[in-house]
Amino acid sequence: MQDLAAIHHLLGRAAFGPSWREMPAYLSRTPQEVAESLFRDAAQYKPLQVVPPPTMTWQELKDLTPEQRKALRKKERELLGRLNAAWLEKMISGEGVLRERMTFFWHDHFACRTQNAWFAQDLNNRLRRNALGSFRTMLKEVSESAAMIQFLNNQQNKKAHPNENFAREVMELFTLGMGHYSEKDIKEAARAFTGWGFNLQGDFIFRKKLHDYGNKQFLGRSGNFGGGEILEIILEQKQTARFITQKIFRYFVNERVDEKYAEELAMDLYRSDYNIGRLMHRLFTEEPFYAEVNRLRLVRSPVELLAGYGRLLPLQISSGRPLLNLQRAMGQVLFFPPNVGGWPYGTKWIDSNTLPLRMQLPGGLYAAGNSYGTQKKGKKRPLTMHVDWPAFVEKTGDIPQEQLALLVLGKQPAPEEQKLIDYATGRASGDTDRTARRLVAWMSMPEYQLV
Question: What is the sign, positive or negative, of the torsion defined by CA atoms of 269, 270, 276, 277?
Answer without folding.
Answer: negative
